[in-house]
UniProtKB/TrEMBL annotation:
SUPFAM superfamilies: Actin-like ATPase domain. Belongs to the FtsA/MreB family. Cell division protein that is involved in the assembly of the Z ring. May serve as a membrane anchor for the Z ring. It comes from the Bacteria. This is Cell division protein FtsA. It holds the Pfam family FtsA. The gene is ftsA. Residues 24-223 form the SHS2 domain. The keyword Membrane applies. Self-interacts. Interacts with FtsZ. It comes from Limimaricola variabilis. InterPro entries: ATPase_NBD, Cell_div_FtsA, FtsA/MreB, SHS2_FtsA.
Length: 442
């Protein structure tokens, strides 16, 4: 638990300090773009903290925004430190310039890092008859920690449900009277190296990290409407290098995972299939791409264009049906993977099974229909919530993570490190992988 636990505590304190100063930046380090938004907070806003939904609109506005093409990031993880550092500096400087303020603290999100979810539970007797802050710390400490392996760190550790005696489904039991307190906690672990690289990279940009969040989680916060977060829904965030999956119920994330494929893989299939450079393939995908061919598409010809100097090669055309034939298998493969992860998580046990697609990769025409067929549920395309001051260019699905990170910065949910958790940890005995406790508790 060690090092990151201390780091997370320090980050939470730093975030509070930055909020009091009034500005903080958020940094979405993705495979295809790096986005930086500068938030200004009004006065004594953090009174809204505590367990519960974070979608409370909102005591901040965006005063600076910038994006730059990502460099040195693959599968949502930093692969080339110096290049990523340059790209982060570019985005942060441009956002600061627009905001007219200097920012020292950032809250960052990461999308790769092979997330793994665990559902834990713990119970304690209440000594004073009334639940105190200390009791919450004790019940969290009573959760049996899974042996999640070397080289992994805990990124999120959130109590998602409390029960006091026989009353379950409590969001915040503090102050209530009872004898036995139990909790269900969702623990998300990630690859430690991926986190260390990102933290190191941001530090090299002379910035302090005041928070870290999983991008699958923050995309869900911004793209699922309140009812979906309450009744049960999955957010599928299709990025460039990876596709994040998060499942919410009772306004808490209870499962997250990621598939190491995204829109870039579709682009590289086009690039190889048509033998064109990646930049040309990206343009063709954006303007003409799709996954459902109709009779019309055999006749619609797309000029590939090129500047090799070989006239025959540069004047080639391809029918839209052929382009769809290249794109569709890869998109199907990504969705099949997503379905396997949702099945493994026990998604079908939720009372509601809405699926929301978001992220830049979700903009391929016809994707929602294909996803409905493969995932077998109601699927809708999601756009992030509107937040004050967000530039028009940043309101699309590609910014679901960035907007969610703003909401996360403004109203973080309670996590393990916010409480004084007693030190004596239980030996890791059995643990239940992600929401198997569902059937008993919801």
């Amino acid at each position: 638990m060690g090092q990151l636990y201390q780091t997370q505590r320090a980050m939470r304190h730093m975030r509070k300090a930055a909020m009091q100063r009034g500005v903080i930046a958020i940094l979405d380090v993705g495979t295809s773009k790096i986005a930086c938004l500068v938030l200004r907070f009004d006065g004594d806003a953090p009174a809204l903290e505590g367990v519960g939904s974070m979608a409370g609109q909102s005591n901040f506005r965006i005063i600076g925004a910038a994006t730059t093409r990502s460099r040195g990031v693959s599968f949502g993880e930093v692969a080339a430190m110096a290049e990523t550092e340059r790209a982060i500096r570019t985005a942060v400087q441009a956002a600061q310039k627009m905001a007219g303020v200097r920012v020292d603290h950032v809250i960052a999100t990461l999308s790769g890092a092979r997330p793994r979810s665990y559902g834990l539970d713990g119970e304690v007797e209440i000594e004073a008859g009334q639940v105190t802050e200390g009791d919450i710390g004790r019940v969290l400490a009573a959760c049996e920690m899974p042996d999640y392996g070397d080289g992994r760190e805990v990124l999120h550790a959130q109590p998602v449900n409390f029960a006091l005696d026989h009353r379950s489904g409590l969001a915040d039991p503090r102050g209530q009277i009872g004898q036995r307190l139990t909790t269900d906690m969702h623990l998300l672990t990630v690859d430690a190296t991926a986190i260390e690289n990102l933290l190191y990279c941001i530090k090299r940009c002379d910035l302090e990290v005041a928070g870290l969040a999983s991008s699958a989680y923050v995309s869900g916060i911004s793209s699922l409407v309140e009812d979906e977060q309450e009744l049960g829904a999955a957010c599928i965030d299709m990025g460039g290098g990876s596709t994040g999956i998060s499942v919410f119920i009772r306004k808490h994330m209870i499962y997250a995972d990621s598939v190491r494929m995204g829109g870039d893989h579709v682009t590289s299939d086009i690039s190889m299939g048509l033998q064109v450079p990646m930049a040309t393939a990206e343009r063709i995908k954006t303007f003409y791409g799709g996954v459902v061919a109709t009779g019309m598409d055999d006749r619609e010809m797309i000029e590939i264009g090129g500047d090799t100097g070989d006239w025959e090669h540069d004047r080639r055309t391809v029918s839209r049906a052929e382009l769809i034939g290249i794109m569709r298998p890869r998109v199907e493969e990504i969705l099949e993977e997503v379905r396997q992860r949702l099945d493994a998580a026990g998604f079908e046990h939720l009372p509601s099974q809405q699926i929301v697609l978001t992220g830049g990769g979700s903009q391929i025409p016809g994707l929602d229909g294909l996803a409905t067929r493969i995932l077998g549920q109601q699927v809708r395309l999601g756009r992030p919530l509107r937040v004050q001051g967000l530039p028009q260019a940043a309101t699309g699905p590609a910014f679901a993570g960035s907007v969610g990170l703003c909401l996360f910065a403004a109203h973080p949910q309670d996590e393990w490190w916010d409480f004084d958790v007693p030190a004596e940890k239980h030996p890791a005995r059995s643990f239940k992988r992600a929401f198997k406790w569902f059937k008993d508790n919801w």
